[in-house]
Amino acid sequence: VQLQASGGGLVQTGDSMRLSCAASGRTLGSYGMGWFRQAPGKDREFVAAIGWRDGSGGGSTYYADSVKGRFTISRDNAKNEVYLQMNSLKPEDTAVHYCAAAWAGSGSYFSGYGSIGRYAVWGQGTQVTVSS
After folding, report:
1. Could you tell me how far CA 106 lies from the centroid of its own chain?
2. Rounded Cα–Cα distance for residues 88 and 55 (Å)
3. Are strands 126-131 and 121-122 parallel, antiparallel or unpaired?
4. Between 20 and 30 A from 20 (CA), which of 80, 81, 105, 122?
5. CB-count exposure of residue 91 (10 Å: 0-12, 13-18, 19+)
6. Cα-Cα-Cα-Cα dihedral of 112, 110, 75, 92, to 10°?
7. What is the model's pLDDT at position 63?
């Protein structure tokens, strides 16, 4: 699978933005998907993840404490895309944002969702800049 992230740009504090991650090569339904970000001079950090497709067509979601309540991760299996809806953006959200795919595990719990090493495929980053 190959991933292509898009939707970044420059916004002001409090604005919203939606990032998209489009997949080619294989269906995303059988992958756990994650969003990570990396600010200048900092390590890449976990933002949000969604588990592989379950019986309802969706997957369990997981968030970093810093974005919980502001960001929403979702997937559209028909379009083979994953999204990150970001609301109430803050200057500290400024970073290059990456989407990544992880092989599905057993059961529905996405173990290791916050670990970079859990993900086998990474897309190129998209810059998100939030001005104060």
Report:
1. 21
2. 32
3. unpaired
4. 105
5. exposed
6. -40
7. 98
